[in-house]
Structures are given as C-alpha cells and as structure tokens.
C-alpha cells in the first residue's frame, strides 16, 4: 500500500494560523485565543479528534450497510486529554438516537477499536522529516 492521505499547510498572516489543503478540500488551522492564536480554525489536536471520530462514523456506517443493520442517526464525540504526569488519552463517546440491544452495543464497541485511525493511534507511527 502506498500513500493513504496527503495534506499541505501554508502559513497565513495571523500568528499560528494556516490554510490546510487536502485534495480539493481546504480548512483553516489555528490555536485558541488562550494560547495566543486567533481561534480562526481547528487546532492540531482538534484535527486529531476530528480524524478519529470521522473514521469511527464512516466505519460504523459501512459495517451497518454491509450487515444491513439500521443504526439510525448517531453522533460521535472525542476529547484529547492529558495530565501533569505526561499521560495522554482520547475519550470517545457514541450517542445513538435509536436504542440498541446489548449484543449490537458490544459489536459496535468492538468495531470502534478496529477502525483504521484507531489502530493507527494505538500503535507507534514513524515520522520521517526532511528539508526540501
């Protein structure tokens, strides 16, 4: 397998802000005002959470379509957390409008642990940086 995703960020005039482009899509990234930014867009850890919950939603919908299960409307939320000891973790929550039976709840929790972005975050990833 080769490149799975690609993105570029170009600096903008405002401190800490940039324009992210991926394919034909674009968005602004920035830091919150409390960190000296202008809060013009998603901060890096917001993007990380967005990646995880987007992948979770897509994976669950694909599973439901494959198994012909009606999940109804649902919402996925995530918080990136850290403590003073240096531990970091993500808390992910799923909210379904349609009640699920216990067996389906367990299956959904199992699937969530197997989404591609979840698996990437749970293992170490090499990052190779070069100057060009």
In short:
This protein is an alpha+beta fold.
Commentary on this structure:
- The chain is α+β, with helices and mostly antiparallel strands and 132 residues long.
- It has 2 domains: 42 residues; 82 residues, 2-Layer Sandwich (GMP Synthetase, Chain A, domain 3), CATH 3.30.300.20.
- It is 32% helix and 24% strand.
- It is built from 3 helices and 5 strands, in the order E-E-E-H-E-E-H-H.
- The protein has a 3-stranded antiparallel sheet, with no helix packed on it. A two-stranded antiparallel sheet has the order 4-5.
- Strand 2 and strand 3 form a beta hairpin.
- InterPro entries: KH_dom-like_a/b, OsmC/Ohr_fam, OsmC/Ohrsf.
- This is Osmotically inducible protein C.
- It holds the Pfam family OsmC.
| Largest sheet descriptor | 3 strands, antiparallel
How much is the radius of gyration in Å?
A: 18 Å
How would you classify the helix and strand content by structural class?
alpha+beta
What order do the strands of the largest sheet run in, or round the barrel if closed? 1-2-3
Output the CATH homologous superfamily of the largest domain.
K homology (KH) domain
User: So what's the CATH class of the largest domain?
Assistant: Alpha Beta
Helicity level, as a percent range? 25-40%
The arrangement of helices and strands along the chain is: EEEHEEHH
What would CATH call the architecture of the largest domain?
Answer: 2-Layer Sandwich
Q: Care to count the β-strands?
A: 5
Taking the alpha carbons of the first and last residues, their distance comes to: 24 Å
Mean pLDDT: 95
Task: Give me the number of helical elements.
Answer: 3
CATH topology of the largest domain: GMP Synthetase, Chain A, domain 3
Q: Outline the low-pLDDT stretches.
A: none
Shape summary: globular
């Amino acid at each position: 397998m080769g490149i799975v995703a690609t993105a570029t960020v170009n600096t903008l005039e405002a401190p800490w802000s940039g324009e992210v482009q991926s394919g034909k899509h674009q968005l602004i990234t920035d830091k919150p005002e409390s960190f000296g930014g202008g809060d013009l867009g998603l901060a890096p850890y917001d993007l990380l959470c967005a990646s995880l919950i987007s992948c979770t939603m897509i994976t669950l919908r694909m599973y439901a379509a494959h198994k012909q299960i009606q999940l109804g409307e649902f919402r996925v939320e995530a918080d990136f957390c850290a403590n003073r000891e240096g531990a970091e973790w993500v808390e992910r929550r799923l909210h379904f409008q349609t009640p699920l039976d216990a067996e389906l709840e367990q299956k959904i929790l199992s699937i969530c642990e197997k989404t591609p972005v979840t698996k990437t975050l749970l293992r170490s990833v090499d990052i190779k940086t070069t100057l060009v």
